[in-house]
Amino acid sequence: MSAGQLAALIAAGAFVLLVLLLAIPLLKLGRTLDEATIAIRKAHENTDPLLLGANETITHVNTQLERVDGITANAQAVSGNVSALSSVFTATLGSPLVKTAALSYGITKAVKARRKKKEEKALRPARRRGRK
User: Fold this and answer.
1) What is the DSSP letter of 132?
2) Half-sphere exposure of 74 (CA within 13 A, CB side)
3) What distance in Å separates the CA atoms of residue 115 and residue 82, rounded to the nearest whole number?
4) Which of 100, 98, 78, 72 has the alpha carbon at shortest distance from 86?
5) How far apart are the C-alpha atoms of 56 and 76, rounded to whole Å?
């Protein structure tokens, strides 16, 4: 064997060793890709029941929202009716009540002023007697 043949034989052996060392990570990568493919298939199979459940939930939520919309509309109608009723009450009874309250206040004040004058008149002659 010549030196060239020996060098070729060593180079061929190194190449085989290199191929074997690169084959191990490639095999592991292949297994990882197989596992990922299996996981994706399982996830795809399990998404159908999840999506059906989510669809049913959304349907129930929409039904409840329609009910809430109806309740809100009724509450708005009631508040409008209460506002109209309070306006009618204020228009019909509010003004006379205010006038009655003002009249009673005025009468009370006038009666108190009259009593005070009577008391002052009653006390004046007594004071004059005391001065004499």
Assistant:
1) -
2) 6
3) 46
4) 78
5) 30
| pTM for the full predicted model | 0.40
Q: How wide is the angle at C-alpha 128 spanned by C-alphas 120 and 117, nearest 5°?
A: 10
Separation in Å, CA 48 to CA 40, 57, 105: 13, 14, 79
CA dist., res. 80 & res. 76, Å (int): 6
- Mapped onto helix, strand or coil, the DSSP state of residue 1 is coil
pLDDT of residue 33 exceeding 90: yes
pLDDT in tens, 92-102: 776 777 788 88
- Confidence check: pLDDT of 17 > 70: yes
